[in-house]
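## Example pair
The file below holds two records. Each record gives the amino-acid sequence first, followed by its structure token line.
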Amino acid sequence: MKKRLLIISVLLFLTGCSCQYNVTIDGNKYKEEIRLIGSDATEISSFNNNWQVPVDKDDFNVGTDPDSTLENNSNIYKYTLQGNTLTFTSDFTTNGYQNSTAVSNCYKTFTVQNYPDSTIISSSQNTICFDKYPTLDSVSINITVDRGVKTHNADSVNGKTYTWHLTNSNHDKGINLILINDNPDNATKSDDKKDIKPNNNERRNNNITYYAFCGILLVIMVIGYFIFKNMVKKNSEMDD
């Protein structure tokens, strides 16, 4: 059974709001939180709508078409209203996160590429949410990681949280973040050399190699000695 979902972007009703976009990475899980902060009574009153926003960008794009319908089991953002702040939350896996509705409304291209030794999170350069929603004043993107970071282009870093600051007049900023896929406690030291003590077998092999080398050297010295002695004897006989 299908039902039509009411999908209305919150920002269309606002006149100067700000947005905090927070993502917490824990292993292959990505916890997304979008906080819309209203500044006046009109904005806050618009937060009281019954928001039904799909978390997947494909479902969202279909749902915004008045002539379309969505399955009633579509995954919808959970939302809470507290004071002047409306908060949307959802959990993703690595593969699903790049299909986030919130991200797709801010960047034309967004990818999460997972490799054995690293995870690369990147986006297109220009932020399109300010073009879509002219009344949006600012967006802060906060990505909190559980491991070391190889490279990034964040504007600021606080502990394990990397932040990009965007405004209506300065939003030509993409996201470039490369995570080190290692033990979170040791990831920042992944390039350090570790002292490794040889085990008993390695010590035994090293000793055998050493003694063999000494034996070969001794044989060469003995042979050389006899050759030298023989040459001296022949020279003496020739002189006689």
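Second record, same layout:
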Amino acid sequence: MRAFIAIDLPQEIKDYLAKAQAKLKSSNADVKWVNPQNIHLTLKFLGEIDEKQLNQITQILEDIAGNKTQFYIHLTSFGAFPNIKSARVIWAGIDKGDSEVKQIAEDLEKESEKIGIPKEERPFSSHITIGRTRSSKNRNKLSQALENLTSESGGFSAEFTAVKITLFQSTLTPKGPIYETLKEAHLKTI
């Protein structure tokens, strides 16, 4: 099965990001927007895993979550990889909670490597993907829309408490991926 580990977002944050997507869609850029119900903060993409690895990952999640305390995540800006002018991945960034997210991702990376899951080559960056460009059509308009979105919101503010880490199964379909929760591991209360 294809799987990943993430911090799921509360509905009000998904709704907020859907409104941001709607503003960016006005650029008419060639973007595959993430279904708002599927928006999440990825901690570790696992790829194809087997039943044995599933059981091991479930234990890893429990161990890591049991040693971490709930924390606030504050969304601060919009941007793109590799940059706004050459956007391929469009994202919402975080500031508060960044170090906690990075520590959990690092722990997941280290522990999952021990059970045969390849280490991610790129350095981890805390972000929430909201879209991916498919071509350069209207890329300049998209860049302008991203800049406008960040400036008009005055560095928007949305915050939530990360209370759990979730293991998702991802089934790819022609209409987009379908995510199913396999395991939730709750962080310690403050």
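Notes on the second record: The mean pLDDT is 93. The chain has one domain: 2-186.
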